[in-house]
């Protein structure tokens, strides 16, 4: 069974690009452009890894990540925070994310961060 990745980003180009790259690498992908009902969205899919954008409609990436990490059933799922903000590292730490990926990123960086969490 393929590992599952859930990508949250309001930019459909980023969603399409990540989906293309990661499906090609053998992962099952689900995407969402909002953080509405974040716990319900994640619980319904139960991914092995989550990418979380900072500027996400409704509660935003920080609030969404904090909600995931506060849920006993979801807190074990690694969250990779990604953003074009210069302070993406600080944002990721505030959110409680497991790591971060600055935008723009290249394909190798994306694949490396995924394999670090899913290929152990």
Strand portion, in percent? 15-25%
Strand order in the largest sheet = 2-1-3-4-5
* CATH fourth-tier homologous superfamily: Response regulator
The N- to C-terminal Cα distance equals 15 Å
Low-confidence stretches: none
How many structural domains are formed by the residues? 1
Continuous helix count: 5
Question: What name does CATH use for the topology?
Answer: Rossmann fold
H-E order:
EHEHEHEHEH
> Which structural class is indicated by helix and strand composition?
alpha/beta
Query: Which architecture per CATH?
Result: 3-Layer(aba) Sandwich
Give the averaged pLDDT, no decimals. 96
Largest sheet: 5 strands, parallel
Q: What does the overall shape look like?
A: globular
CATH class bucket: Alpha Beta
The tally of strands reads: 5
Computed Rg: 13 Å
Q: Into which percent range does the helicity of residues fall? A: 40-55%
